[in-house]
Write a structure and sequence with these properties.
The protein is α/β, with parallel strands linked by helices and 469 residues long. It has 18 helices and eleven strands. The radius of gyration is 25 Å and the shape is elongated.
Length: 469
């Protein structure tokens, strides 16, 4: 075991022991009167000195204006808005407590949200056992001061068995039916809500999203007159591009009524309504009104994350049945990546996003996605990780949201606006550091002679894409 891992393990065990002892002390002191402002301030300083990463590019500002300076050039500031803030963060799991505190307005983040989100990987505090009594008293003081925690107003309330048709419809509606006007504020002009493709790194968001749509069509080797199934068709960007640029016929299916109406309107405005059809349909019901083997190509972009681990076999079997022999499928999906190793898993659940952003969403590691695809008889032909592209995409989205702050706040209300700001800012960091991946997986359904209809090399995908540097 390396020195770094041994140190991290000792740190984990020490903090675990402190957490256990702290919980007991807090319970014993629950009936004591709330601490004074001075006691709260002293306890806050004690705990922050012990817990803040030694290397951090952000300042911490207390409610009284006092600043604990960054130890590296500062790119962000974490502002504790009240004496109650830190006490409300001393709950497990920490990721949920931190996220909920931000939604309530217990603290503000100025500057780069990713630098604050990085605490989970830069955390290096190893408390001295001699300091344990003072840390326990500080934690107990802050928890008493926190008092009752106000509720969060934006929680998804879903009914029915997880990943049933009815519950999936509710989950999709919670996230995607917020408001088409809201999404219009910060997405590109086509309203493509998935990872863009920055061929040279200097493209605008509009250019990068068009390049991504074209990359998917090229990877599918889409041809004039072919029938494309677009699973999770969103606001219609890919379907319309495939019809306009490649002459394909397209069926797009979605569970979002807001997306359905917007996509149909956009197809009509683009003059492709005769070749593009959008329907409100679950992926499990694609073949309900369509014969088996009806589609030459299938694209599923940003949709597999909503399927759930239990239903992945059903998802790939349904796609395989819908595809003609010799056909290709593009599965473009976010994947679980490298863990944030510095904070032990028992301290963080990873459930904040599933509770407030993508209810019931599940991210699988790429190996598991490939396993389910091959068990459905698909042959894997190509896999590409575009995580750096997603980090850039999210940076664009977050900047657009900041530009339209007033309109977004009016559309969503305070808590939901804060949720989106946190989600976009933090997720960009997770992709940049590899904690999340974005994989385009090209799958083939071989024909009767077991041929997969792809060229011998990838050269055709990148013709004209050479850039300097």
């Amino acid at each position: 075991m390396s020195t770094t891992r041994r140190t991290a393990r000792r740190s984990t065990l020490t903090w675990a022991a402190l957490a256990t002892a702290g919980a007991a002390l807090i319970a014993r002191q629950a009936t004591r009167p709330a601490p004074t402002d001075t006691e709260t301030l002293d306890a806050t300083r004690t705990l922050l000195r012990a817990a803040l990463p030694s290397v951090r590019p952000f300042d911490v500002q207390l409610w009284n204006g006092e600043v604990i300076a960054a130890t590296r050039p500062s790119r962000a500031r974490l502002i504790l808005n009240s004496p109650e803030t830190l006490g409300r963060l001393l709950k497990l799991p920490l990721d949920v407590a931190l996220g909920e505190a931000y939604l309530r307005g217990d603290f503000e983040i100025e500057g780069n949200i990713g630098d604050i989100a990085a605490i989970a990987e830069t955390f290096d505090a190893t408390p001295n056992p001699a300091d344990a009594p003072a840390l326990l008293r500080a934690a107990a003081t802050l928890r008493r001061r926190a008092g009752a925690t106000p509720p969060i107003a934006v929680t998804a309330s879903l009914e029915g068995p997880q990943h049933s048709r009815e519950r999936d419809q509710q989950a999709i509606s919670y996230h995607y039916d917020v408001s088409n006007d809201f999404y219009r504020l910060w997405l590109d002009r086509r309203m493509v809500y998935s990872c863009a493709y920055f061929r040279g790194g200097t493209e605008t968001l509009d250019e990068a999203q068009e390049a991504k749509l074209d990359l998917i069509c090229r990877k599918l080797r889409l041809q004039q007159g072919e029938h494309l199934l677009d699973i999770g068709s969103g606001w219609g960007g890919l379907a319309i591009h495939a019809a306009q640029r490649y002459g394909a016929r397209v069926l797009g299916v979605t569970l979002s009524e807001a997306q359905l109406h917007e996509a149909r309107a956009r197809a009509g405005a683009a003059g492709v309504a005769d070749r593009v059809t959008f329907e409100l349909r679950d992926y499990r019901d694609v073949l309900a009104h369509t014969p088996e083997g009806s589609f030459d190509k299938i694209a599923s972009v940003g949709m597999a994350e909503h399927v759930g681990r239990r239903n992945m076999p059903t998802y790939f079997r349904a796609a395989y049945a819908a595809l003609k022999p010799g056909g290709l499928m593009m599965n473009h999906a976010i994947s679980d990546g490298i863990p944030q190793a510095r904070v032990p898993l028992w301290l963080q659940s990873g459930n904040f996003a599933r509770r407030y952003v993508f209810p019931d969403g599940e991210l699988l590691p790429i190996w598991e996605t490939v396993k389910h695809a091959t068990e459905a008889q698909f042959e894997v032909r190509d896999i590409e990780n575009l995580r750096e592209h997603y980090a850039r995409t999210l940076t664009h989205w977050a900047a657009n949201l900041e530009t339209h702050h007033a309109e977004a706040l009016a559309a969503l209300g305070e808590q939901r606006h804060r949720l989106w700001r946190l989600y976009l800012g933090a997720t960009s960091h997770y992709f940049e550091k590899g904690h999340l991946g974005l994989y385009q997986t090209l799958l083939a359904k071989p024909d009767e002679q077991r041929r997969a209809h792809v060229p011998l090399s990838r050269a055709d995908l990148y013709e004209g894409e050479m850039v300097d540097g």
